Amino acid sequence: MTNQNPLFDITLDLGLGYFEVVTRGFWSLDDIAEFRSALERTIHRIRATGRMPVSLCDYSHAMVQSQEVVAAFMQMMEAPSVRSGRVAVYTKGALTKFQATRANLDHGEFRFFTCKDAARAWLLSPRD
User: Which superkingdom (predicted)?
Assistant: First the structure.
């Protein structure tokens, strides 16, 4: 998929029902709105195949975000239109991992990884 925002990329594998998000930099509320729209389009395409989406979120290039952006992200994640069956969050940064973990405490479908290959393997493994 293509987008015009340099702060994120979304790569879709429709056959697997899998998408990967790479985030970068420091976000604004406008970036969250654009990201939400891109996620909704991606997830809609996967669900149209009858699959439950799974996603890998690569935060290894992201910065710690403002409280305002974290709050907007948390609110966005309450919407069923942006939810995946499984979400693997990959980052080696301790602060970004802490922030991502805190922002998703209520979401049991999230797992956190420091190895991208392990994250992808968990996502694509048979469900428990």
Answer: Bacteria
